[in-house]
Design a protein that fits this description.
The complex is a heterodimer of chains A (300) and B (542). With 300 residues, chain A is an all-alpha fold. In chain B, α7 packs parallel to α8. Classes of the chains: A mainly alpha (300), B alpha/beta (542). Chains A and B meet through α7 and α8 of A and α14, α15, α16 and α17 of B.
């Protein structure tokens, strides 16, 4: 017997059927809607291109020294000039993109994951777990973060992985706090209760229903954090921790070039500095666009 | 006093210009109360916002005129408007809690408006604010002056909002759904207070509401709005007795009232006979001495103090009471989202109270007891489409996959009358009634025996409420479910339920067959609840 036939009910006034829009359409819409977002993504594309294709495109070997060409000002042959060992600053600045992006993206991804898990657990279950986690995170935040990162790298050893770990650790509290707050306000929301009634366990309700709703504000945090992470990695290199010469890295290049500014060879430090600024600026601009893309409510 | 002619308001949106109000004309005479009635999206609130010139960004008055005592509201400068707002025209908003600043003492908020319009100075502001609070019959105003909004009940907050609105003796008061979200007894108290004050001060007022019954009771004249235009205007008794426009007739029909059966809420053309159903003599659910006590800051809080009632298989039981009476706590325990302090919940012979709610999601009984939530918007995950929402219980409890699941989802959509194309929409792309249908489809997806309905129509327009209530009646007959219908409105409960349980202060004050409780209430509190519901004027039998 088929009990599931249609019950004739009174039709409500209906909106005209909307075209169902895919995720890609939505991304295109967000880009079109806000020229700043479009600009940010264009800048991001430039950065990505430099990171992926950079080493293949640059005119000179970033590590090749040439004593006869040392400290040349910018010219047609050397767009950004050459450094004290005659290496091409342009090639070095472009090649450095890959390493700097790698460090920051890896660090941010790591802190995103750890912070999300800790924050979501604290926000959902509360109680002593929340108290304990929150105090630990507060303790981390109580340190001057850059000094903490210096300490971690100095203690664990001077490697690129340790820069990533140090940068991740100092960023975890920001994610954890944000996620904790976002999860906490949705813990008792109707849709979370409904998900429990639908037979979902607590972990699943948290992971599949509550956490995704915290993504839009997280995206803003991620993009700002990418900028910070790059600055942080460059800062550590600047003071001689982490990446070591002769590796091409913006922080080291600025550090090495700084000595030459007084004697008039400004191009050594300025150009890698500008690259750094470009990257940080790009990530800061990216935030709002990313948020709009992951928020289904922005779709019509 | 206020004349509006061909007022048109439009909003710029992503999909082009939307005309929210198109050519509305009405007048409000001195001392008159005008009701603007319409469902959500009819442009009734936008009309009032346009008068106050507080339209959202992107909104503008496109055409027409609005003149208040010789002042052209359309052309007045922002400075002039600031002088008018609060002093000449003031407004009471829908959600009193949202209308008050949560981190400022209520007394200070009253002082703000008094001082803004130079009705008080630093010396006498406190005294005048307390005077204004006493005017809205707040007992112990001196002490309440220092309260923050969260320390006050909803009704008390609305009184404070009234005090703010009336502090500077405005000539015109605009009330935008002043009692939505308040209990029915509080609604009556607030409405009576406001009408009395309006009469005392011989003010004019505009009451904006979706409740035709409420408007009929308190207004001298009513205009009915639909899609940004006025479809009918007239005095309330005439509108009810002889609605001229089909839309007005539909609204009149859909308003729950004494003597009307649930099918009579629907327009006459689509009425079908009420399907027969069988009520068994055996209890499906027996609640025995259920107690819930919370540890509060100042001693234990007794939310539910030992309630007992039965729901027979196929029966619908109404659980009625004001907010804070423990009805929601009781339903949360029954649906196993909350553990009782003591007592039994016998479901088909088994005591569910013994099984902790934390692990109940994996219990085989989970599929048997489901719930429809009060706020359809809040109960749907904003990131899930309707299809994903309905799929959730099917995946987790019925273990349906792929094709079988897709088919079942479409079957459920048909069952609750949700057009299939809407399955791929997100909640914010659906109307209130459509969201309610998604919520119901999710609840009945795994064929539960018992459904807790927590005010499923509280946030809906009356015509949608009528449709949803009738849908619930059809589903009950078709699927043989039992309902526990939680509500504060006895007149809605009467339409759907066979048996009524009235709660007050965590205890059951009365229970019995619906007809008996409604016609001859044994407890004075039940009588008070019945009395508080708005009484729409009688309508013609024809």
């Amino acid at each position: 017997m088929n009990t599931m036939t249609e019950i004739p009910t009174v039709a409500e006034p209906q909106a005209p059927p909307a075209k169902s829009k895919g995720a890609l359409d939505h991304v295109i819409y967000v880009l079109k809607d806000n020229p700043v977002t479009l600009l940010a993504f264009a800048m991001f594309a430039v950065l990505m291109a430099a990171a992926v294709l950079g080493p293949a495109l640059v005119p000179y070997d970033p590590l090749a020294t040439n004593a006869s060409e040392a400290l040349q000002p910018p010219s047609a042959a050397h767009w950004f000039g050459t450094d004290n060992l005659g290496r091409d600053v342009f090639s070095r600045a472009i090649v450095a993109t890959r390493l700097d992006l790698l460090i920051s993206v890896a660090a941010v991804a790591l802190s995103f994951v750890i912070g999300s898990v800790l924050g979501a657990a604290a926000g959902y279950w509360g109680g002593w777990l929340d108290v304990a986690l929150s105090r630990v995170l507060d303790t981390i935040m109580a340190f001057p973060l850059f000094v903490l990162a210096m300490g971690i790298v100095a203690a664990m050893g001077n490697t690129i992985e340790n820069i990533v770990y140090a940068t991740a650790i100092i960023n975890v509290p920001f994610y954890a706090r944000l996620v904790r707050a976002e999860v906490n306000i949705r813990r008792e929301a109707g849709f979370a209760l409904a998900a429990k009634l639908a037979g979902n366990t607590d972990v699943r309700v948290l992971a599949m229903h509550i956490f995704p709703n915290a993504l839009p504000p997280m995206m803003v945090q991620v993009s700002l954090n990418l900028g910070w992470a790059i600055l942080n990695a460059a800062g550590l290199s600047f003071i001689g921790l982490g990446v070591r010469p002769p590796t091409a890295e913006w922080g080291i290049m600025v550090a090495e070039g700084a000595n030459f500014i007084v004697s008039g060879e400004w191009w050594l430090a300025i150009f890698p500095g500008l690259c750094l600024m470009f990257a940080v600026f790009t990530f800061n601009l990216l935030g709002d666009g990313l948020r709009d893309m992951v928020d289904p409510r922005r779709r019509t | 006093m206020l004349t509006i002619k061909d007022l048109a308001v439009s909003f710029r949106t992503r999909r082009g210009e939307v005309n929210a109000v198109r050519g509305v004309s009405f007048e409000v005479a001195e001392g008159e109360t005008l009701g603007i009635v319409g469902e959500s999206g009819s442009g009734k609130s936008v009309t009032s916002y346009a008068l106050m010139r507080i339209l959202d960004a992107g909104g503008r008055i496109k055409a027409g005129e609005a003149v208040y005592s010789g002042v052209d509201l359309k052309r007045a400068s922002e400075r002039e408007m600031q002088g008018l707002r609060g002093r000449e025209i003031s407004m009471i908003f829908q959600n009193p809690r949202a209308a008050l600043n949560p981190i400022r003492k209520v007394g200070h908020q009253i002082e703000d408006v008094l001082r803004r319009h130079a009705r008080a100075d630093a010396q006498n502001a406190r005294a005048k604010a307390i005077e204004a609070m006493e005017a809205v019959k707040i007992r112990d105003a001196e002490a309440r002056y220092d309260a923050y909004p969260f320390e006050l009940s909803g009704g008390m907050c609305q009184r404070i909002v009234c005090a703010i609105a009336l502090a500077c003796d405005p000539k015109l008061l605009i009330m935008d759904e002043p009692t939505t979200g308040l209990d029915i007894t509080t609604q009556k108290a607030v409405m009576e207070l406001v009408t009395e004050l309006i009469r005392e001060r011989s003010m004019s007022s505009i009451l904006i509401t979706h409740d035709l019954g409420l408007a009929a009771q308190y207004c001298d004249r009513i205009v009915v709005m639909k899609d940004g235009a006025i479809v009918e205007a007239g005095d309330p008794v005439r509108l009810f007795a002889r609605p001229g426009h089909p839309y007005t007739r539909k609204l009149v029909d859909a308003t729950p009232r004494e003597g009307a059966s649930i099918r009579e809420l629907l327009p006459a053309e689509v009425r079908t006979p009420e399907p027969p159903r069988r009520i068994s003599d055996e209890a499906l659910l027996s609640v025995r001495d259920l107690v819930k006590t919370y540890a509060g800051k100042s001693g234990p809080v007794h939310a539910v103090k030992g309630v007992s009632f039965d729901v027979k298989a196929g029966q619908s039981v109404g659980l009625v009471g004001e907010s804070g009476c423990g009805k929601s706590t009781t339903s949360s325990m029954v649906v196993r989202l909350l553990d009782p302090t003591s007592g039994q919940i016998l479901f088909a012979g088994e005591d569910l109270a013994k099984r902790p709610s934390a692990g109940f999601a994996r219990d085989p009984m989970r599929a048997k007891i489901q719930m429809v939530f009060q706020d359809a918007t809040d109960s749907l995950n904003p990131r899930h489409t309707s299809r994903q929402t309905i799929a959730e219980p099917l995946r987790a409890m019925a273990g349906l996959r792929g094709r079988a699941r897709a088919e079942r989802i479409e079957e459920l959509a048909d069952l609750v009358g949700l057009p299939r194309p809407l399955l791929d929409r997100f909640p914010h792309q659906l109307s209130g009634g459509q969201k309610a249908r998604v919520g119901i489809a999710r609840a009945i997806a795994v064929n539960p025996d018992f459904l807790v309905l927590d005010e499923p129509t509280a946030a809906l327009d009356v015509s949608i409420q009528a449709i949803v209530l009738n849908l619930l009646v059809d589903l009950r007959a078709r699927l043989g479910m039992s309902y526990l219908f939680v509500s504060h409105d006895l007149h809605v409960v009467r339409l759907l339920c066979d048996h009524v349980v009235v709660m007050k202060g965590g205890e059951i004050v009365e229970q019995g067959p619906t007809e008996q409780v409604m016609t001859a209430p044994a407890d004075p509190y039940t009588a008070e609840l019945l009395e508080a519901a708005p009484k729409p004027p009688a309508r013609d039998a024809a």
